[in-house]
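pls design
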């Protein structure tokens, strides 16, 4: 089987949820055609609008380079693209472009094997826990948090993430935790994301109160490259530290786990280098007896997490989901996503939606 051609599109998808409603998110959609009649789909994005056109040009250049190659040689293609994109550290447009192509290649591979992707990757389970992440923003007042959180529970979510980092005092940050716990009761997992907005001392001061509210994890309290600072926070708190979404490639994850700066490894599929890179980080985390969780792209990441024995949660962020016709279903009885059983990703682009979103 050989790759015979490709098509890409640049789209801007309004966000369903977020600090600024309907803020557009740019994506590059990818289709790879083969001489066996199998078409693989993928996408890349979650970057800045200003660099969206440059990302598409990079994807197009990479896709042209692999026409005529075997789509099932995923590892070889990944290494070739990252090398041709520039030796040294994998980052930025190069990694994101290679990641989108990698996803499409795995879709072809699953379809050729007539297997859903999670089974091709290892097949640990066919249902995965998920948490609601597209709501409960730090610029929301406590009344809105208290109103929205129970609605998410009623929709079937058994876990959800809210944000801290914008309040001027420790007391007001703690008040938001109290409001959230009171709103959902004791049986819902609550995660907190800081998005790197604290320093080490503030993270420890507020973090010590988190045990009182049963917080499942504290995410990215300080800059992602402050491995020593994260290690200090992790050592000081009972609440686990989740981090990793900002890392490109594999090397930073090794540094994070070796320095004990992370308790829960969060991996962004685009920055890690696609499904190939994501699975490598997940296996690395498993060696260190650490759980792994996803970041964004839930319609793809349901497969990767389902393949990992150390997979814990899929982040349900509904920013990319409007591009697809059908999505993994949430079982409201237990808050788990049902992994699609169709070959490959089990996804199909909604072409009419892509037409509306075209840039």
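designed seq:
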């Amino acid at each position: 089987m050989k790759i015979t051609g490709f098509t890409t599109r640049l789209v801007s998808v309004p966000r369903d949820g977020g600090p600024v409603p309907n803020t557009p998110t740019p994506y590059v959609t990818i289709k790879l055609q083969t001489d066996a009649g199998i078409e693989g789909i993928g996408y890349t994005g979650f970057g800045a609008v200003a660099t969206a056109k440059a990302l598409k040009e990079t994807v197009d250049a990479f896709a042209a380079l692999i026409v005529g190659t075997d789509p099932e040689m995923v590892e070889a293609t990944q290494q070739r693209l990252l090398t041709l994109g520039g030796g040294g550290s994998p980052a930025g447009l190069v990694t994101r472009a290679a990641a989108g192509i990698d996803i499409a290649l795995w879709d072809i591979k699953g379809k050729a094997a007539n297997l859903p992707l999670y089974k091709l990757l290892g097949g640990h389970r066919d249902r995965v826990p998920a948490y609601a992440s597209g709501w409960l923003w730090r610029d929301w007042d406590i009344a809105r948090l208290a109103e929205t959180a129970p609605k998410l529970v009623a929709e079937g979510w058994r876990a959800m993430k809210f944000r801290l980092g914008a309040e001027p005092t420790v007391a007001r940050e703690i008040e938001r935790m109290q409001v959230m716990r009171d709103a959902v009761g004791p049986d819902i997992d609550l995660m907190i994301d800081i998005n790197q907005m604290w320093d080490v001392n503030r993270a420890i001061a507020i973090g010590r109160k988190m045990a009182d509210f049963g917080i499942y994890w504290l995410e990215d309290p300080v800059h992602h490259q402050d491995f020593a600072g994260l290690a200090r926070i992790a050592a000081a708190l009972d609440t686990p530290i989740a981090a990793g979404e900002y890392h490109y490639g594999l090397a930073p994850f090794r540094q994070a786990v070796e320095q004990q700066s992370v308790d829960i490894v969060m991996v962004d599929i685009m920055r890690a280098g696609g499904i190939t890179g994501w699975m490598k980080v997940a296996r690395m985390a498993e060696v260190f007896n650490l759980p792994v969780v996803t970041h964004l792209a839930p319609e793809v990441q349901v497969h990767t997490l389902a393949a990992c024995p150390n997979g814990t949660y899929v982040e349900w962020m509904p920013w990319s989901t409007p591009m697809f016709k059908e999505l993994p279903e949430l079982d409201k009885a237990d808050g788990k996503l049902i992994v699609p059983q169709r070959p490959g990703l089990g996804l199909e682009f909604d072409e009419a939606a892509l037409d509306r979103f075209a840039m």
